[in-house]
Automatic annotation (TrEMBL):
Coiled coil: none annotated. Its cofactor is Mg(2+). It is found in: Cytoplasm. CDD domains: Obg (cd01898). InterPro entries: G_OBG, GTP-bd, GTP-bd_Obg/CgtA, GTP-bd_prot_GTP1/OBG_C_sf, GTP1-OBG_CS, GTP1_OBG_dom, GTP1_OBG_dom_sf, OBG_GTPase. Its main location: cytoplasm. Monomer. GO terms for molecular function: GTP binding; GTPase activity; magnesium ion binding. The gene is obg. This is GTPase Obg. Its EC number is 3.6.5.-. Mg(2+) binds at S172, T192. The lineage of its organism: Bacteria, Bacillati, Bacillota, Clostridia, Eubacteriales. The keyword Secreted does not apply. It comes from Thermoclostridium stercorarium (strain ATCC 35414 / DSM 8532 / NCIMB 11754) (Clostridium stercorarium). Gene3D superfamilies: GTP-binding protein OBG, C-terminal domain (3.30.300.350), GTP1/OBG domain (2.70.210.12), P-loop containing nucleotide triphosphate hydrolases (3.40.50.300).
């Protein structure tokens, strides 16, 4: 099954907690703190794999979580780093943050990787907090949480040549004629509901990839008839073969059809209208010779190269493909998105962010770093409490409370419910 869009939740591993430990050896008097640091959490990494063709696997699993870092231990032993979680996706996958819509990465080449959620940082053990005046710190820092987010995976086919045109004009027949692809072919509209890829062999070591883009219709750039789903696959192609039914058997005007499809390309993406394009005038085996001649003359006046073909019988197809192959040798690769400022995409929430609100006379302070700080405080230890108070002042929490009008004796609630009376 061809699936070209998916949403998944990714959660990087949390950092391990620092350890509170003291040396306890037989011949070592007054052993000092020796708590080790926690390990960093594992990252969530997307990796492009040329062997994958769709995002179908993400229909059945949507939540991905990397390993947590191990906690530190005694004798200054650091915890092990959490294993990174590597998720394979097809080449041509664009990764977006669901909340912001920012593009995180464009995975084009086989083996290309992108970190979509960074692991948390391991906490420091109590050995780091020893000072000449605080020789036995009875507290450590906990690891920070790993990043988590919902991301959108959007697959855009990587093909050298795209076949475009109205439904039922013979695109699938042409692809089957020149490659080993086996698209569904029948005499009714919208036979092809998903893009098909085929490799066109031109000899040993010489080939190119052709994509049968499902039938476009008028209004496609506005999403009519799954227009957006189809049009996005045209963006990665280096050139376009516009297949036109010149037989007129369905009562449509081939010249008008040509202009409608090109208008849809232009409205969807102006650059697509400038993409190199040649015309395959199909179904000449059942078309009127005069009508074919008039169509060719009209298109050539507009500057297009036209190849009269019959995809069903193979007439004229070899000349078309040979021309395409020679033309591809002169065309550059399509421009691939590259984030101008990736640090903006990957930046986590500011560590020092916090809020101060007043609820029923209680001053409520909250923020991710404050919650993490609370988890590492031993409220039965005087030095640990002093460290906590200094951290609040250093981060600007005390100043923010004073600006809110706090007075001595007022109640302050921090995090999930830790309350104390304010004493300046």
């Amino acid at each position: 099954m061809f699936i070209d869009i998916a949403e998944i939740y990714v959660k990087a591993g949390d950092g391990g907690n620092g350890a509170v430990s003291f040396r306890r050896e037989k011949y070592v008097r007054a052993g000092g703190p020796d708590g080790g640091d926690g390990g960093n959490g594992g990252n969530v990494i997307l990796k492009a794999d040329k062997h994958l063709r769709s995002l179908a696997d993400f229909r059945y699993r949507r939540h991905y979580k990397a390993e947590r870092g191990q906690d530190g231990s005694s004798q200054k032993c650091a915890g092990r780093k959490g294993e990174d979680l590597v998720i394979k996706v097809p080449c041509g996958t664009i990764v977006k943050d669901r909340e912001t819509g920012l593009i995180i990465a464009d995975l084009v080449e086989d083996g290309q990787t992108a970190i979509v959620a960074k692991g948390g940082i391991g906490g420091k053990g109590n050995a780091h907090f020893a000072t000449p005046t605080r020789q036995a710190p009875n507290f450590a820092k906990n690891g920070t949480p790993g990043e988590e987010r919902w991301i959108i995976l959007e697959l855009k086919l990587l093909a050298d040549v795209g076949l475009i045109g109205y439904p039922n004009v013979g695109k699938s027949t042409l692809l089957a004629q020149v490659s080993s692809a086996k698209p569904k072919i029948a005499n009714y509209h919208f036979t092809t509901l998903t893009p098909n890829l085929g490799v066109v062999s031109m000899g040993i070591g010489e080939s190119f990839v052709m994509a049968d883009i499902p039938g476009l219709i008028e209004g496609a750039h506005e999403g009519v008839g799954l227009g957006h789903d189809f049009l996005k696959h045209v963006e990665r192609t280096r050139m376009l073969i516009h297949v036109v039914d010149v037989s007129g058997l369905e009562g449509r005007n081939p010249v008008e059809d040509f202009h409608v499809i090109n208008r849809e390309l232009r409205e969807y993406n102006e650059e697509l209208s400038r993409r190199p394009q040649i015309i395959a005038a199909n179904k000449i085996d059942v078309a009127d010779e005069k009508a074919v001649k008039e169509f060719i003359e009209c298109m050539e006046k507009l500057g297009y190269r036209v190849f009269p073909i019959s995809a069903a019988t193979g007439s004229g197809v070899r000349e078309l493909i040979n021309y395409v192959y020679e033309m591809l040798k002169t065309l550059p690769e399509p421009e691939i998105f590259a984030p101008e400022a990736p640090e903006v995409v990957y930046r986590a929430k500011e560590e020092d962010d916090f809020t101060v609100e007043i609820e029923n006379g209680v001053f409520v302070v909250d923020g991710p770093w404050i919650r993490n700080l609370l988890r590492g405080i031993n409220f039965n230890d005087r030095e640990s409490l002093q460290y906590f108070q200094r951290a609040l002042r250093r981060k600007g929490v005390i100043q923010a409370l004073e600006e809110k009008g706090i007075q001595e004796g007022d109640t302050v609630r921090i995090g999930d419910g830790m309350e104390f009376d304010y004493i300046p």
